[in-house]
Design a protein that fits this description.
Distance between the termini: 43 Å
Order of helices and strands: EHEHEHE
CATH topology: TIM Barrel
Strand order of the largest sheet: 1-2-3-4
Largest sheet: 4 strands, parallel
Number of helices: 3
Strand content: 15-25%
CATH class: Alpha Beta
CATH superfamily: Metal-dependent hydrolases
Number of domains: 1
Length: 119
Amino acid sequence: MTCFDCHTHTYLSNHGSGLIEEVVSAAVARGMSMIALTEHLPLPREVDVDGTFAMDPDMVEDYIEAVREVRAAHPEIEVICGVEIDWRAGATDYILNSLEQVSSPFELRLGSVHMLTDE
């Protein structure tokens, strides 16, 4: 049976824990054939006021580079560079513009709705 995980977060999403290397190593240890890393796409401060819901904008390039490095270190598992795109009231234009700027490295884009209001 094929085993994989398509929804993971590390410390980069500001509400997960661990390093990308630790997530991938754990997947390898469990015999998984694929893991998708899916940090949250950055959100504007007026939507993510305390900065705990999404990846910081200045961390996106570090995230992409870390995925490249872990792929090279773990050829025994397929590592997907993904992003979770959370729809938030008042942030649609920001999200769409952000995706246009950084979407090319993301092989998987998860859409999500965690909150239906901006409260």
